[in-house]
Structure to design on (531 residues):
């Protein structure tokens, strides 16, 4: 097997995505544009993915990294609106968008249109939540968007499988579809609940960070495969396991947490970059396969479907926000929503990697390989254009829209004060533990070392309070900015001296690596204390 095209795809897409961070152009758009241009270069091979491995390969790691960064407690508090969006809206969008595509595109069967509806139904709120945090959107809206993107994939994939079964002639009914959905959701939840405790136990009992991170890379694939073996939802199983492990992450060794964060950021970055690059690389092949739908008509279908996707989301979001308030129980438990929130949630329905992964998983052939899958290229094309359209129109306009709506800005002083109070309570408990340990004869330390432990606690306690102080009128720095800068300068001087000692053969490379790692951890601690 020639691995060079795959290596070029990963390396090229990562380089382009990294370059996009230095420009105002969103990385997905630049990746698609470059991929499209490269696809016309002579000698560039056709990049294709095996539909049977797309969902198991792409979705588990992407869902896992998003879920471990989520808050189980916040999601539980917002479960009603999250469920309305992740289940109700996805089913509504599947039928509404599918029916609209059936009416808009001549000759497109309703079954194939419903496949398309299921593919483009789930929004990918990763970009939306990133924007929400950056511009200071209320945490409730951010939690709802994040929870929706975690759980809506299972609904969309189940709806997709039911519609696909009809297209390929395996037969399906409303009762069968409901039964499959219940089996998938309940079964996926059950598999996740069964696996989460043993996996956490194994994770905490492996003593080597390298082994713990290896297990971390395997966990999403294990949970997904185990659920799929029972015809349950692998997506839900991955999310359940990831939420539990993320909630209990504090029990894992610190070195594992530091490594794991870097590893999963890299994995998500590479996978998402490669998927968007594949859009551009495959567009020419897809366009050539449109057949009767080539030409201006294809562009019209793409624009019309994009508008339908946008309108359908608002048609669901506003009733789902205000109609539940007719219930006295809902009014008693939840604050009255403002008119601004539904606008943001409605406009934040960008489609992304999940829709692309489902579209790529459409089989190439039916009838045991004897006939090509009907309308596959048309569905891929309309999925591509919908994803790009939402990323361009909604992704670029969401930040100014949020600023225009003028949500109440969070009080940074209040957040810092809460952090300082939490740190003060934790430091007091730690100091009591330290005094009790030092009182034991078995823990006798020289006074300078005992004082150093006390000073570390004092520094951590004071670092947060100092953020409430004034800015230096000469440098424009806060106290913690100055502390961080001076600490890094000191560490940099030590690092340079260690290298000079190694170059002079006073120490060897193994000792240099040990000393540099110690400084790296110290620098990481300084950075985290003041950010």
């Amino acid at each position: 097997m020639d691995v060079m095209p795959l290596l070029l795809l990963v390396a090229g897409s990562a380089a382009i995505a990294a370059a996009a961070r230095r420009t105002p152009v969103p990385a997905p758009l630049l990746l698609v544009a470059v991929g499209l241009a490269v696809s016309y270069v002579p000698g560039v091979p056709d990049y294709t993915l095996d539909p049977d491995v797309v969902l198991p390969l792409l979705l588990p790691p992407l869902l896992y990294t998003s879920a471990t960064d989520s808050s189980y407690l916040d999601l539980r508090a917002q479960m009603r609106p999250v469920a309305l969006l992740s289940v109700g809206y996805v089913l509504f969008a599947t039928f509404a968008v599918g029916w609209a595509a059936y009416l808009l595109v001549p000759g497109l069967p309703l079954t194939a249109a419903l496949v398309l509806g299921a593919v483009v139904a789930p929004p990918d709120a990763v970009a939306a939540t990133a924007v929400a945090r950056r511009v200071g959107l209320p945490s409730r809206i951010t939690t709802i968007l994040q929870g929706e993107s975690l759980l809506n994939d299972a609904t969309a994939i189940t709806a997709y499988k039911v519609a696909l079964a009809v297209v390929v002639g395996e037969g399906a009914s409303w009762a069968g579809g409901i039964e499959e959905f219940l089996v998938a959701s309940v079964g996926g939840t059950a598999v996740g609940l069964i696996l989460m405790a043993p996996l956490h136990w194994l994770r905490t009992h492996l003593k080597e960070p390298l082994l713990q991170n290896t297990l971390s890379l395997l966990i999403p694939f294990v949970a997904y495969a185990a659920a799929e073996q029972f015809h349950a939802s692998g997506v839900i199983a991955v999310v359940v396991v990831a939420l539990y492990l993320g909630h209990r992450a504090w029990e894992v060794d610190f070195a594992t947490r530091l490594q794991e964060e870097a590893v999963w950021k890299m994995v998500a970055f590479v996978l998402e970059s490669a998927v968007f690059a594949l859009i551009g690389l495959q567009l020419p092949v897809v366009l050539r396969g449109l057949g009767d739908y080539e030409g201006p008509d294809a562009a019209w279908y793409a624009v019309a479907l994009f508008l339908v996707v946008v309108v359908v989301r608002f048609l669901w979001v506003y009733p789902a926000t205000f109609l539940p308030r007719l219930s006295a129980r809902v009014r008693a438990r939840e604050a009255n929503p403002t008119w601004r929130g539904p606008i943001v949630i409605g406009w934040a329905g960008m489609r992304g990697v999940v829709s692309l992964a489902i579209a790529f998983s459409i089989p190439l052939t039916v009838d045991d390989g004897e006939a090509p899958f009907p309308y596959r290229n048309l569905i891929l094309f309309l999925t591509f254009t919908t994803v790009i359209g939402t990323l361009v129109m909604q992704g670029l306009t969401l930040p100014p829209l949020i600023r225009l709506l003028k949500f109440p800005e969070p009080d940074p002083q209040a957040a810092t004060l809460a952090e300082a109070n939490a740190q003060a309570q934790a430091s007091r408990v730690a100091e009591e533990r330290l005094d009790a340990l030092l009182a034991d004869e078995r823990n006798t330390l020289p006074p300078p070392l005992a004082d150093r432990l006390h000073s570390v606690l004092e520094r951590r306690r004071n670092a947060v309070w100092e953020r409430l102080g004034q800015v230096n009128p000469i440098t424009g720095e806060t106290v913690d900015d100055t502390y961080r800068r001076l600490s890094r300068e000191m560490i940099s001087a030590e690092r340079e001296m260690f290298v000079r000692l190694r170059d002079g053969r006073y120490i060897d490379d193994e000792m240099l690596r040990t000393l540099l790692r110690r400084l790296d951890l110290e620098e990481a601690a300084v950075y985290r204390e003041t950010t």
Observations:
- DSSP finds 21 helices and two strands in the chain.
- Residues 236 and 429 are 39 Å apart (CA to CA).
